[in-house]
Amino acid sequence: MKKAIAAAFAAMVSLAASAGDGMKFALVNMAELIRLGPDYPRDTRMMTEKRQAYEDQLLKMQSELEALGEDLARQNESLRAPNPMLNPSVLEDQRKKFADGQKRFATLRQQLLLKTQECENTLRELQGMLSKRAAEKVRESLAKFAKEKGYDAIFDTDTAAWARDGIDVTGEVLAFCGIDADEARQAAKDAEAEARRRVPAPKAGESAPAAPADSAKRDGK
Questions:
Q1: Are 155 and 15 in contact (CB under 8 A)?
Q2: Which of 35, 67, 122, 140 is the most buried (most CB within 10 A)?
Q3: How high is the mean pLDDT of the chain?
Q4: For residue 38, what are the domain limits?
Q5: Is residue 167 a part of any domain in this protein?
Q6: For residue range 25-49, what is the model confidence (pLDDT) as tens digits?
């Protein structure tokens, strides 16, 4: 997409130079305009809060998984060296409980994996929606700016291989939109700093302890 825009930009500049029609061009830093836009701090905090809410759910699931894993580890140790005086039926009940716990562990682990993927997809979609909306608002502002200032086209700085000094009008666009660049940068930094302080995402968890390898032999089965 950027290559196509850059090619179009070069073609239009060449056409304007050859035709001598006085076409007027400018460049802007789209990423900067989006980041310094009035919605950026709010959108960043919205993403942070949504991500934190999801991660709180995932951490709760992970804690349950870890607690079950620790309990299974204790049961496993007990089953590896069972009390020889223990009633066989009681020992069998313990082994059944251990097996049920392993199944429960596998189910919880799968649920955590699925929930993690679901949260990631939802956050990705939300981020895409917010980014698209922010870009559309910037383009609307650029259309008004271009009309008032008499520009025939405004391109993103990322698409220009070279441009003379003074053709970047990012600052002018910010002023046109009534945005104080210094205040906007600070607001963006604050929102980004808050996002970095969020709780880290949990891991999916390890496998449950395996059943004692010699349990069947001890039963004589």
A1: no
A2: 35
A3: 84
A4: 2-212
A5: yes
A6: 999 999 999 999 999 999 999 999 9
